[in-house]
Design goal:
single chain; about 240 residues; alpha+beta; Deoxyribonuclease I, Chain A; 6-stranded mixed sheet; 5 helices; 14 strands; about 20% helix; globular; disordered C terminus
């Protein structure tokens, strides 16, 4: 709820919810419309499920933005969810993503390419739109990382630029494993190069109420718009809530 109180858009990854549990997200706030996709749908159809749920994506859109921000699409594997922002001055596709984990398998690079292929196909249907890709990328921005090397090629073709350097934290990280003492910068925001100058208040939020091993990334996108205030406040959050 804290995230919804202070942001107009909230993208969430790793919901750990079944389809029949999605109503829990819709009941969090009447001020938001929610679009979701469970990561469990295919697994439930194909086999008996054991262990905890996995995956899933969602986006919360403040209702006062409904004339500007609308749902666009999501993929069948619950790895990408997309919304459109359309004003007189800017057309923007925002993709909330949950990229595959690097399990060092032979097909890891192909699975990353599949996610990017879906994004590119959506962009081809919306010629002239700028792009913002955010979420749990599961890779650090180093060419030694296979996932990033695949993404970097896509990023160059689409004229995207990373916003990692906007963080003011020293030794910044977005993932931490307390037991193993591991920290990594796995959650990123990539935006069309022409729009980066409008990104401000970029922050990695380290809050005591966050029970996830990922830290939310928050930023403001200052877009001139007559129909609404000129600040769109967005959140990439990996917080998983437990209902009791």
């Amino acid at each position: 709820m804290t995230l919804l109180e202070s942001h107009d858009l909230v993208f969430v990854q790793e919901l750990w919810l079944h389809d029949h549990e999605m109503h829990l997200l819709h009941s969090l706030s009447k001020e938001f419309v929610v679009y979701t996709r469970s990561g469990m749908a295919n697994a439930v159809q194909n086999r008996i499920i054991r262990g905890r749920p996995f995956g899933g994506i969602a986006v919360f859109i403040r209702r006062t933005l409904s004339s500007l921000v609308t749902f666009c699409t999501c993929d069948d594997d619950a790895r990408v969810i997309c919304v459109k922002y359309v004003s007189e001055n800017v057309k923007l596709l925002l993709f909330g993503c949950y990229f595959p984990f690097n399990d060092h398998s032979a097909d890891y690079a192909n699975r990353v390419a599949d996610v990017l292929g879906f994004i590119e196909n959506v962009c081809n249907d919306y010629h002239g739109f700028n792009m913002c890709i955010l979420g749990d990328c599961n890779f650090e921005c180093a060419m030694t990382n296979i996932g990033y090397s695949v993404f970097a090629d896509f990023s160059d073709r689409c004229n995207l630029i990373s916003c990692d350097d906007l963080s003011t934290r020293e030794n910044a990280y977005t993932y931490h494993h307390e037991t193993l003492g591991q920290r990594s910068y796995l959650d990123h925001v990539f935006i069309s190069r022409t729009l980066k100058e409008y990104v401000c208040d970029y922050e990695i939020i380290d809050s005591a109420i966050n029970t996830s091993d990922h830290l939310p990334v928050s930023f403001c996108l200052m877009i001139p718009c007559d129909a609404y205030q000129d600040k769109v406040h967005s959140k990439n959050s990996n917080i998983v809530r437990d209902y009791r």
